[in-house]
Protein: RNT2B Ribonuclease
Organism: Steatornis caripensis
Amino acid sequence: KHEWEKHGTCAATLPVLNSQKKYFGKALELYQHVDLNSCLLKAGIKPSSSYYRMTAIKEALTRFYGVTPKIQCLPPEKGEEAQTIGQIEFCFTKELQLRNCTALKSESNLTLADLKLGTEELSVCNDTLPTYYPSQVQ
């Protein structure tokens, strides 16, 4: 209900997404189409206790999909040195074609700062920190 009311009703201006069934059906279709795990596995990046370079993750995704995704991380916990991937977001045009996820000027004030995963805030990943790609984020 929340996802439909928050995002779906906005997307419903497009005929291809103008009902709950179409909206969620298309979301599942796009989720299967953008298979992040397969893409990253082909680049030798898999969920594990190993750390990766954020630039390697970004390069693999950009090379495979031809667009730049938005990757957000949980910052290192106290005493830790590695950040943890919390979310990888791909953006689409109104025609549902992949496009670069570049922040609009109106978003430069971090309007997504309200986004939380658990009790910690997600933020733009730091390219210089080791990055943990977990099998799941709790």
In short: The chain has two domains: 1-34, 45-104+120-137. Confidence is low (pLDDT under 50) at residues 105-119. Residues 1-34 form one domain. The chain has four helices and nine strands.
